[in-house]
Amino acid sequence: MLDIDSTELRHLLGTAAILRGQGKYEDASKLVEGRIGEMNDEAKQAAYLQLIYSNLECGNRKKVKSYVDLLAEYDPNIPTVKKIKSGQWPT
To answer: Is the sign of the CA dihedral 2, 21, 86, 65 positive or negative?
Structure first.
């Protein structure tokens, strides 16, 4: 596995956030999903959170649940993870 470096990760997640801000949720998700295999565990946590936000914003609850489950494997105490797992979906 090639590890994405921290500068690349910041750029990738920043670009995904910009795309989300433009309402391009699927583009944001595809951008992050396409690079997740290159990430170490710490980077994956940030990426999964970005994917949760992208999919929440476009209403794809199935993908949100999938990414919440993946992120919970690393840290089940992240507030977004805890809320969604308890059935409190952000609006």
So the answer is: negative
Cβ neighbours for 1, distance < 8 A, ≥ 6 positions apart: 37, 38
* Predicted TM-score of the model (pTM): 0.90
Q: Which domains are delineated in the chain?
A: 6-85 (1.25.40)
Answer with the residue of higher pLDDT: 90 or 80: 80
Predicted pLDDT of residue 21: 94
Buried-state track 49-83, b at ≥16 Cβ within 10 A, e below 16: bbbbbbbbbbebeebbeebbebbbeeeeebebbee
Does the pLDDT at position 81 exceed 60?
yes
Task: Work out the angle between the directed axes of helices 25-33 and 6-21 (0-180°, nearest 10).
Answer: 160
Nearest of 38, 48, 51 to residue 8 by alpha carbon: 38
